[in-house]
Amino acid sequence: MKLSTKHLLGIKNLTKEDIEIILSTASNFKDVLQRPVKKVPSLRDVTIVNLFYENSTRTRMSFELAEKRLSADTLNFAASSSSAAKGETLLDTVNNILSMKVDMVVMRHSASGAPHFLAKHIPAAIVNAGDGINEHPTQALLDAFSMQEKFGSLQGLKVAIIGDIMHSRVALSNIYLLKKMGAEIVVAGPPTLIPKYISEALNVRVEYNVKNALQWCDVANVLRIQLERQNQPLFSSLREYNLAYGVSQKLLDSLDKQITIMHPGPINRGVELDSDVADGNNSIILNQVENGVAVRMAVLYLLSNNGN
Ligand code: CP
């Protein structure tokens, strides 16, 4: 099974078959991760750098663990403690790292398009671990894996993506993926946090009333309010955001159905999601994190076997 791409820069350019291959390979790796010995030799003698220009807990540790489970050699780069802080360019940094015989690059960057730029200039395979407000493809893949695990199929599944859609790379990657896989999507939140032309551009339904979106969906993927990407206030206060758009147990109790709760993390508890919901029986948030390792093993394994 081969992917149609040398890099994983986003979901936008993946085929439905690529996504199916990644999810089914991840399922095999999830079985491996249940065994007492969780390590396989698949990427022995492959060296991977985790190049993080932006903070991360889940994605960075998940990639590192995935690489170790595959027996790859790993290098970790944090921009704040590197010569990037002295002004070294992204391309110089990566070329210097590659000259040490590094085979693959996993990268997170605050600039949208940074991995796409890099892909034009270096020979190594690149995995986008989140670029600005553009895409976070492995998050969408692990979200899809988690929904498929829970519901059996993504076809016809009703997914509400709720919150700060405007600044969310998770939202965009999820929309691309879910549409390719035949799910139905509603994006919900305040008008100031939903791009004006998203309905026409991406063919998704927009709902400004979160209760209506929850009443409609099977799954709510609740997104973080990304205050660090907002140059000016886009809602009156966190308290008022929580009252108008936050997902609380009281709101869920007012529905006539149970829905599955997801969140990519990190959670602003008491803002977009209340703690009793995040930690409740319908939450699969920690399953998402667990599945991230198997999904990233699948991506790294498939790209390393793709003639690079
Ligand atoms: N979901 C996610 O990308 O989390 P981190 O920022 O901690 O990697």
Automatic annotation (TrEMBL):
Which reactions fall under this protein's catalytic activity? carbamoyl phosphate + L-aspartate = N-carbamoyl-L-aspartate + phosphate + H(+)
**Where does this protein act, in terms of pathway?**
Pyrimidine metabolism; UMP biosynthesis via de novo pathway; (S)-dihydroorotate from bicarbonate: step 2/3
Q: Which InterPro entries match?
A: Asp/Orn_carbamoyltranf_P-bd, Asp/Orn_carbamoylTrfase, Asp/Orn_carbamoylTrfase_sf, Asp_carbamoyltransf, Asp_carbamoyltransf_Asp/Orn-bd
Keywords assigned by UniProt, alphabetized: Pyrimidine biosynthesis, Transferase
Residue ranges of domain Aspartate/ornithine carbamoyltransferase Asp/Orn-binding in the record: 155-303
State the superkingdom. Bacteria
| Annotated binding of L-aspartate, by residue | 86, 169, 224
One Pfam entry name: OTCace
- Return the broad EC class: transferase
Q: Recorded E.C. number(s)?
A: 2.1.3.2
The GO molecular function terms of this record are: aspartate carbamoyltransferase activity
Is the keyword Transferase assigned to this protein? yes
Q: Which residues form the Aspartate/ornithine carbamoyltransferase carbamoyl-P binding domain?
A: 6-149
Q: Where does carbamoyl phosphate bind?
A: 58-59, 108, 136, 139, 265-266
KW Transport (keyword) present: no
Family (UniProt): Belongs to the aspartate/ornithine carbamoyltransferase superfamily. ATCase family.
Entry function = Catalyzes the condensation of carbamoyl phosphate and aspartate to form carbamoyl aspartate and inorganic phosphate, the committed step in the de novo pyrimidine nucleotide biosynthesis pathway.
Assembly with partners or alone: Heterododecamer (2C3:3R2) of six catalytic PyrB chains organized as two trimers (C3), and six regulatory PyrI chains organized as three dimers (R2).
> By what name is this protein known?
Aspartate carbamoyltransferase
**Lineage per the UniProt record:** Bacteria, Pseudomonadati, Bacteroidota, Chitinophagia, Chitinophagales
The coding gene here is pyrB
